[in-house]
Amino acid sequence: MSAISTLNFSSSRFILTGFPGLEVHYLWLSIPFSSIYAMVFLGNCMVLHVIRTESSLHQPMFYFLAMLALTDLCVGLSTMHTVLGILWGLIQEITLDSCIAQSYFIHGLSFMESSVLLTMAFDRYIAICNPLRYNSILTNDKIIKVGLAILCRSSLLIPPVIIRLKFLNYCRPHILSHSFCLHQDLIRMACSDIRFNSIYGLALVISNLLLDAVLIIISYIMILHAVLAIASREERIKSLQTCVSHICAVLVFYIPIIGLTMVHRFGRHLSPLVHVLMGNIYILFPPLMNPIIYSIKTQQIRRRVQRLFHLKGM
């Protein structure tokens, strides 16, 4: 008992929470989770490969899609070693430094995905509302600058709040709520003054995720206004169809975030298993679904993927 207390209160190691109550089924659970991670990697790599090798897809819309696929690929890499490590019985704990690093990548990549989705909304707005100037506005140089701006916004704003985690005193039980590390999980265990982390963290969420969501909604209001002004019904439907994939990607990203936030805020009475499942949905659902959405809904991607598999089948 004293050893456990020492681990929970004094050590710099943290216990990862797998799936409470399902420990005896970890071997079986590892099969669907391994399959999901394999699909995440194969799906996003396939999208990147198709965009890289097909010259007709070297357009702004698909460059932004490549950014989204690369972000999703990194999200999978950032959590795979702890999620599958628990299910395979390889790890049960994580050091503070590793936990902080994983937290940085998870939150940074989440902000990056939000930024890419906002950029894709802007791309759709230009394509529909100002099609004649589309290529002159979104030149390759501007796309590179946008990519660098997204990278800086997602990586340079987080370090102040993440680095501070290293200097907090963790006196509460070192038991994480998920199979990976989140900033809010670590500050929950701290006995130090966490006002900076709480205020700065909230400011980051408002200035990134919430602001991006509002701007995406505004962009679609303007798109809808422009589409309704088109006289031909067929042209209106055709214009809106180019946005379907992006709208699905936005919903796939934001709905799990809202669900996880609600569970953390109002679901304290719920089973820990619900928290763990929501956490894994938040991490894995967007990277899993985005390649499927774009392969089905985007005609150019779908045709190229079909051709790719047809050639391999031959």
Helix content: over 70%
Which secondary-structure class do the elements indicate? mainly alpha
Major sheet: 2 strands, antiparallel
Mean model confidence by pLDDT: 88
Distance between the termini: 63 Å
CATH architecture descriptor name: Up-down Bundle
Q: Could you name the CATH class?
A: Mainly Alpha
Beta fraction of the residues?
under 5%
Keywords: Cell membrane, G-protein coupled receptor, Membrane, Olfaction, Receptor, Sensory transduction, Transducer, Transmembrane, Transmembrane helix
Membrane topology: Multi-pass membrane protein
Organism: Camelus bactrianus
Pfam families: 7tm_4
Characterization of the model:
The protein has 314 residues and is mainly α. The chain has a single domain (25-307), classed as Rhodopsin 7-helix transmembrane proteins (Rhopdopsin 7-helix transmembrane proteins, Up-down Bundle), CATH 1.20.1070. Helices cover 75% and strands 2% of the residues. The chain has 13 helices and two strands. Strands 1-2 form a two-stranded antiparallel sheet. Putative odorant or sperm cell receptor. Pfam families: 7tm_4.
Short recap of the structure:
The chain crosses the membrane at residues 26-51, 63-91, 103-122, 143-163, 199-231, 243-267, 273-294. This protein is mainly alpha-helical.
Structural descriptors:
single chain; 314 residues; mainly alpha; Rhopdopsin 7-helix transmembrane proteins; two-stranded antiparallel sheet; 2 strands; 75% helix; 2% strand; globular; disordered N terminus
